[in-house]
């Protein structure tokens, strides 16, 4: 029997129930940033164990907006691992920063022993990638980041609910970025992403950044 590597139609096998929910959703006209999203954000935050969750367009945007919040800009450096999907690097490069690569260890995650030697005066953030359910050793990485006062933004796009000693991916750094792409464990119909954080200041800023900096329809506080 031929078995497909991925079989996306399977998740829509019982789509009749989904159609009924969709009818209810569209009849309310709440298409963007409405109550359904807020409910999903609250449930996602509770699932991960975070105080806050912010829904965005993709896992890529989740990384990029987190980097933007910590001030990554042209000429900065961001340390990440060489073994990752191109979106991790793309999010860094789109802000004009230079990705600085660290090799992986036997888990295919970031080799923590190589991180400190990569830190320079231009290092603005560290983005460990938790790969296919395996987590970067955050117990070793966090003290290094704290020593140099460098924020950690976790790329947890491939590792929702992965944990170390009961502490989930996304809770070790200032934020965690998750993908809701159809091939991920928790997914939406087209694409989506989520940022989790315990920092109220970051949460409030991300709410603005994800929607062009709009406070309301007629007032813009920042460029997003």
Automatic annotation (TrEMBL):
The keyword Chloroplast does not apply. GO terms for biological process: polysaccharide biosynthetic process. It comes from marine metagenome. InterPro entries: DegT/StrS_aminotransferase (IPR000653), PyrdxlP-dep_Trfase (IPR015424), PyrdxlP-dep_Trfase_major (IPR015421). This is Transcriptional regulator. Pfam families: DegT_DnrJ_EryC1 (PF01041). Keywords: Pyridoxal phosphate. GO terms for molecular function: pyridoxal phosphate binding; transaminase activity.
């Amino acid at each position: 029997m031929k078995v497909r590597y991925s079989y996306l139609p399977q998740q829509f096998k019982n789509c009749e129930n989904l159609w009924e929910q969709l009818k209810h959703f569209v009849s309310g006209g709440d298409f963007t940033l409405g109550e359904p999203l807020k409910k999903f954000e609250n449930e996602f935050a509770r699932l991960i164990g975070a105080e806050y969750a912010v829904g965005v367009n993709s896992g890529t945007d989740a990384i990029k907006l987190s980097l933007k919040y910590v001030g990554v800009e042209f000429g900065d450096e961001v340390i990440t691992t060489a073994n990752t999907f191109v979106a991790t690097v793309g999010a860094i490069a789109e802000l004009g920063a230079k990705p600085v690569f660290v090799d992986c260890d036997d888990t295919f995650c970031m080799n923590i022993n190589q991180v400190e030697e990569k830190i320079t005066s231009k290092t603005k953030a560290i983005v460990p990638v938790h790969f296919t359910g395996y987590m970067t050793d955050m117990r070793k990485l966090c003290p290094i980041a704290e020593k140099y006062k460098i924020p950690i933004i976790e790329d947890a796009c491939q590792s929702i609910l992965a944990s170390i000693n009961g502490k989930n991916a996304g809770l070790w750094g200032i934020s965690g970025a998750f993908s809701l792409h159809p091939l991920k464990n928790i997914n939406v119909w087209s694409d989506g992403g989520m940022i989790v954080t315990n920092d109220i200041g970051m949460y409030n800023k991300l709410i603005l950044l994800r929607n062009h900096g709009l406070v309301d329809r007629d007032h813009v506080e920042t460029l997003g």
